[in-house]
Amino acid sequence: MQLLWFILLISILITVHELGHYAVARLCDVRVLRMSLGFGPPLLRIVRGETEYVIAAIPLGGYVKLLGAESDESIPEAARPRAFAYKPLWQRVLILLAGPIANLALPVVIYLNFYAGEERALSSTIGTVLAGQPAADVLLPGDRVVAIDDHPVRYWDEVNLLVQASPGRDLRITFERPGESHTITKVLTPRAHERRDFFGEVTRIGLIGVMPHYQLAQIGVEETVSVRPDVREPSPATRAGLRTFDVITSVQGRPVETWSDLERALARNRGEPLLVTYLRRQEPSLGWAALGRLEPGTAQLFPVRTTDGKTTRYDTGMRPGGLYIGHVEPGTPAATAGLRVGDVLVSLDGAPLQHWEMLEQAFESLRDRPFVLGWRSSTSAGPGTGAGELHSATLRLQPRTEQDEFHTESTLYVFGAAPSRALQPVPTLPIDGRLGWAVRRALATTATTAFTMLRILAHLAAGRLPISTVSGPLMIYHLAGVVAARGSDLFLGMLALISLNIGILNLLPVPLLDGGQLLLMAVEAARRRPLERRLRERATYLGLAMLGALMLVALRNDVMRFWWH
Predict the structure, then answer these.
(1) Catalytic site residue 18?
(2) 417-447 in b/e burial notation, b at 16+ Cβ within 10 A?
(3) pLDDT for residue 380
(4) Which pLDDT score, from 0 to 100, does residue 405 have?
């Protein structure tokens, strides 16, 4: 089956490429002598009209033979009007470009098929507003952005794209707020954030500190609270038996869905007893499997009056659960530093840390640079373990090279700790003008992917990427079987990526490729006369040597990936 999927994949790519040449040649009234899918001995030959159609034994390429395409071909006078060499330059250029363009167009069709099947998209509703960020004093959870700089927006992707493209530039944000009868317009300035991409290069994007999800009312429990500046006592949450990672579902019988709902309910309290219901995760083990379930519970809290000498409030000991550690991977920087499940992060490089998202954003630019992390130890560790004490350590992210099932290596920078998140996405909306939306997304995805591939080629040429990253037919053979086993969508996705590769590579100015033929045409046009046969032969041999060397390198890399290790 893997061989069949490989042949199907290659056949589609070759057919699309050669059909591009064939179709434009016919439109330009050039006689097509032969269209061959594959090289070597023919397995099937059919003659229709003036064209011979061939399926050959080696499915690793193909060609369209046109009358007059060979420089030394002798063309009778009567046949010259339909010969390639006697056509106007613009028609010859179009015929050569048609193959690569067909390969570049195929991904658009595939991505269009993907996006056309989507009926709904995340709305431009604000789910979470990160404290200390540009949006903190302007937007609230539940606000829905309707325009940015008078550009109408409806979906979250549109908001994200416009904000990220505007680091340090004032934006006029127009939004609707629940309970308000009119829209509100405010000015926000996205902060500039440096992010390292796949190539290690730093790009600047704009961020305002909003997320397309609500934080459920998942709590962290602080063991003690300060009733006076020098006096601490067990918190009401601790006394009531609440635990870190519990999710509050109601307060005084009123439903609570998000952390914002819980905050408002607690802010109204003036010391009255609170009856809360919650869900607690239980993970019983069957020996061979672990099951996760949520069990409901009820607790009564008696908020205590606390003061820091300046302000007075009624505290329950319940804190936002987003910075509490839910998992620590052994052997990672987090584990080596002494972080444990239930610990709460409090600072990064001396600055207060209020959201895990801010830590992840910092990691995007840190990589191999050291950072100082501060945390408070778990209150569930028990007496004599330093529970509740503040700690700090200097850490570095751990580079880790991993190889996936596609035998592709990538380097990850690992911290080793993760939160126990309880999130709910913002509402979705039906997609207006689905066809136009799908076409725009398909074109944008194709353009972005093609740009990435061009960058990869540039980095390879400059030596910034190792030549070992080049893959050949054996890798494609392997990928065809792996993705086909996962479903048609992945198979089509890989087909789109390889088709883009073929389209771009064929446009390179290398003799034997379409781009090389275009280069020779440009030279002939500049000289106003054809190139000598000897020069064309040398160019052909040079192109053959270059492609042969590239194929040998790719084959060597494939052998090293699949058999050497």
Answers:
(1) yes
(2) bebbebeeebeebebeebeebbbebbeebbe
(3) 52
(4) 67
φ and ψ at 204, to 5 degrees? -105, 125
What per-residue confidence (pLDDT) applies to 520? 83
Number of residues assigned to the chain: 565
Distance CA 76, CA 468 (A): 50
For residue 395, give the amino acid letter: L
pTM, full prediction: 0.81
Question: Looking at residues 426-446, what average pLDDT do you find?
Answer: 93
Strand boundaries in 261-358, DSSP class E: 274-282, 293-301, 304-307, 312-315, 318-320, 325-328, 344-348, 351-352
> CB of 375 within 8 A of CB of 353?
no
What does the CA dihedral 190, 196, 199, 200 come to, rounded to 10 degrees? 140
- Rounded CA separation 104/109 (Å): 10
Q: Residue 4 and residue 556: Cα distance in Å, rounded?
A: 24
Q: Given 3-state DSSP classes, what are the helix, strand and coil percentages for the chain, each rounded to the nearest 5?
A: 40, 30, 30
Per DSSP, the three-state class of 395 is strand
276 forms beta bridges with: 251, 299
Tokens describing residue 56: 């050959």
Specify whether the CB–CB gap between 365 and 410 falls below 8 A: no
Q: Please write down the long-range contacts of 467-473, taking CB distance under 8 Å and 24 or more positions apart.
A: 467/553, 467/557, 468/557, 468/560, 469/557, 470/550, 470/553, 470/554, 470/557, 471/554, 471/557, 471/558, 471/561, 472/551, 472/554, 472/555, 472/557, 472/558, 473/60, 473/554, 473/555, 473/558
- pLDDT band of residue 276 (cuts 50, 70, 90) is very high
Q: Could you give the maximum distance between any two Cα atoms of the chain, in Å?
A: 106
- Which of 62, 36, 185, 209 shows the shortest CA–CA distance to 134? 209
With helix as H, strand as E and coil as C, how does 206-253 read?
EECCEECEEEECEEEECCEEEEECCEEEECHHHHCCCCCCCEEEEECC
Q: Which of 18, 223, 357, 524 is catalytic?
A: 18
Name the DSSP class of 181: S
* pLDDT tens column, 451-494: 999 988 888 888 887 887 788 888 888 888 888 888 888 899 99
Cα distances from 391 to residues 59, 330, 343, 359, 418, in angstroms, run 63, 19, 10, 17, 18
Q: Are 211 and 357 in contact (CB under 8 A)?
A: yes
Give the span between the Cα atoms of 176 and 356, in whole angstroms: 27
pLDDT of amino acid 476: 84
- Report how far residue 216's alpha carbon sits from residue 326's, in angstroms, rounded to the nearest whole number: 15
Helices assigned H by DSSP within 128-181:
156-164
Alpha carbon distance 377, 348 (integer Å): 16
Contact indicator for 276, 301 with CB cutoff of 8 Å: yes
Residue 479 CB coordination number (10 Å): 24
Q: For 410, what's the count of Cα atoms within 13 Å in the CB-facing half-sphere?
A: 10
- Among candidate residues 239, 245, 327, the one with its CA nearest the CA of residue 278: 245
Asked whether 28 and 91 are in contact (CB, 8 A), the reply is yes
